[in-house]
Amino acid sequence: MVTENSPYLVVCLFALIVIAGVVLILKLSKDKTRKISSLRFFIQIAAVVAVFMGLLIGPFNVPIFEPLGPSPRNRLLGIDILGSQFPDGISVPFLACYYPNGRTVTCAIWQLQAYVYPFWDYPRGYQADYSTSGLEKLAVVVGMLVVACVVLGRSFCGWLCPFGLYQDILTRIRKATRLRHLNTSVRTNKKLGQVSYIIIAVFMLLSVIFASYTIFGTEIIPGTIPGGPEGTEAGIVSNINEPFCLVCPARPLCIAVECAVGAMDWSYVSQIVYGPFWISGFYLTSINVTILIVVTILAFVYRRAWCRICPMGGLAALFSSFKPFKWIALTKLEKNEHKCTKCGVCKRVCPTQATDMYEKKGGDVTESRCILCARCVEICPYDGALKLTFAGKTVVKSRNWLGVDKSAKDPAG
């Protein structure tokens, strides 16, 4: 029997299961070089169920969304506080895709685009009413991102992002087949990090072009005046809005997973298409499906391939790894230069090929490519050489798990 308090009981039960799982992993894990990784993998899975698929809290089968499937809708964090001023909920610095139903948080990349076009100066959104201007909404999004990134940095990428979990699963599959991963050159990897900012600039520019009528009073692209035909919120057909979402590989992956577990109705999703080969479908497009396939192949060969160019990861890095945000960032990777022997094992195990923890002498070695997964910390065999800290307090530090002498040259073999 379903009661009014059932969703909250389910959440409490889920929280107890997660806490029990964390305790068991920390207490029973015998492999000291994989304990943190096992814990991180468990938390990633829990986050997908609780945050991204939204399978814990109702209301279920809301009539207006009934064709989409049975999973809960619009139980977004923060709307009770912000209300119509910000009905899309709290912005988060990871790809918590807006489009699959059941979401509990909102992808900030979606918001940054949508609040330029089509909702810059239009009060009606996707089943939401806005009472603020585009500039005000953008200011709230950026403000939330800055706070979240200053507090936790790119740990969102390493510990919570659903697409990061997908790539980690691909890595585990590759390891099971005993295939070695490939690495890019140091120069190439640094340039890939710059691509994320190019992606952000291109798609924000496209959004401004789409919104040219409401912002500048001139319609650059015909059909982009808000309140246009077919009952859409914008003059251009609504599936063209938010241009990055048309190519984002996380969108088709999230939709496919929810359809697979029965949380979304595939027969409905597959009908919402426009043009041949789903070129511009609302939920799936030929573009984002193709990119998902390409990224899947690359992530199988190169660890965390998408993370190296991800625009959301780029923003998280911008607001945590670069000055002045780096000065006040609370979550950091730190190195004790007197305990480091330059064995290089930290550099070799890094899934995004970050190098500052190896190349820099000491102190704060957090960089834009670092997703704070703590893999380098758990594999380092020198006690306290590397540590993950929060507000100056050590969260986890490297251990002398091999019992080797500090002068050993390469404990990794």
Question: Could you please describe the fold and organization of this structure?
Answer:
It is built from 17 helices and six strands. It is globular and about 70 Å long. The chain has two domains: 6-308, no CATH class; 330-413, no CATH class. It has helices spanning 6-28, 35-52, 79-82, 108-114, 134-152, 155-159, 162-176, 186-210, 212-216, 250-260, 266-269, 286-301, 311-318, 325-328, 345-349, 356-359, 375-379, and strands at residues 91-92, 106-107, 331-335, 363-364, 386-390, 393-397. The strands form two sheets. A four-stranded antiparallel beta sheet has the order 4-3-5-6.
Q: SSE order in H/E notation?
A: HHHEEHHHHHHHHHHHEHHEHEE
**Fraction of residues in β-strands:** 5-15%
Q: Taking strands numbered 1, 2, ... along the chain, how are they ordered across the largest sheet?
A: 4-3-5-6
Principal-axis shape equals globular
**Whole-number count of domains:** 2
Main β sheet profile: 4 strands, antiparallel
How many H/I helical runs? 17
- The N- to C-terminal Cα distance equals 59 Å
Number of strands: 6
Instruction: Specify Rg, calculated over alpha carbons.
Output: 22 Å
Helicity, as a percent range: 40-55%
